[in-house]
Amino acid sequence: MRTCGVAVVWWMVMLGQSDAQELTRERAVAMATAELMRVVGMAEASIAVVDATAAQWRDSSLGCPQRGMAYEPVITPGYRVTLRAGNGRHSVHVGAGRAVLCGTPLRGDARDGKLARPSPTAGLKLAEQARTDAAARLGIPPERIAINFFRPTTWPDAQLGCPAPAGEAAPQPQPVRGFLIELSAAGTTYEYHADQTRVVRCEPRGRR
Questions:
Q1: Is 129 exposed, middle or buried (0-12, 13-18, 19+ CB in 10 A)?
Q2: At residue 53, does pLDDT exceed 80?
Q3: What are the residue boundaries of the structural domains of the chain, listed by start?
Q4: d(CA 93, CA 99)
Q5: d(CA 124, CA 115)
Q6: Residue 98 · residue 78 · CB < 8 Å
Q7: pLDDT of 27-38, one tens digit each?
C-alpha cells in the first residue's frame, strides 16, 4: 500500500510538471492580466507587470482558498503574477488553465498609502446595501439573495470601473479604494461596484 501511495504521488508530480511546461510565463501573464481586467474593469494599457514567478500550489485552490469551498489535493504548477494597476498592486495566481485574483490589493508606491484601506465591516455593509438594491429591482425579499463575496479592490476612477453615462466625459484617472461585490439569486449572478460609501450596479468596461 505504501508503494502504491508513493507511485500515486509521483504520478501527480509528473503530471504537474508536464502542465507547467505547457504554461509559459508569457501565457500566465496574459491570463493574469485578463483576469484583473475582468474583475477591476481597467483597460489593458493601464496594467503593468511587476513580476511573474513559477510556483507550485498544494491543491486546486491555487493558493487562494475560499471559505466553504472544497479543493482537490493535487499538486498544481503555475505562476504567481504581480500586476500594477493605477497605484495599487494585485497578486494573481495562475494554474490549471485558470487565473485567480488572490487576496486584497498589495501596497503600491508611497502615494498609494494615502488611500484608506477598506475594512471588512465596511465591505459587509456595502454588500448588504447591494442586496437591498437588487431585491428592490427583482421584487423579491433580500433574504432570497445570497452574497457570494465582497472583495477589496482599487478602481481606476470615480466611475468605479463602470462606463460613464451617455453624453458625459469620463472622469480623470484617480484610484479609488472599494469593493467588488457579487450576489446571486435563482441561479443568476449580479455584480456591484462600490467605493467606501456607495454601491453601483453596472457592467464593467469592455463587457457587454
A1: middle
A2: yes
A3: 2-112, 115-201
A4: 6
A5: 19
A6: no
A7: 999 999 988 887
| Residue 130 pLDDT | 93
Closest CA to 55 of 90, 20, 85: 20
Cell numbers for 15, please give them.
503530471
Contacts of 40 (CB under 8 A, 6+ apart): 85, 90, 153, 154, 155, 156, 161, 180, 204
Global pTM value: 0.45
The average pLDDT across 19-30 equals: 78
| Helix/strand/coil (H/E/C) assignment for every residue in the chain | CHHHHHHHHHHHHHHHHHHHHHCCHHHHHHHHHHHHHHHHCCCHHHEEEEEEEEEEECCCCCCCCCCCCCCCCCCEEEEEEEEEECCEEEEEEEECCEEEEEEEEECCCHHHHHCCCCCHHHHHHHHHHHHHHHHHHHCCCHHHCEEEEEEEEEECCCCCCCCCCCCCCCCCCCCEEEEEEEEEECCEEEEEEECCCCEEECCCCCCC
What are the cell numbers at 168? 458625459
Query: Is 15's pLDDT higher than 50?
Result: no
Range 144-175 burial, b when 16+ CB lie within 10 A, else e? ebebeebbbbbbbbebbbbeeeeeeeeeeeeb
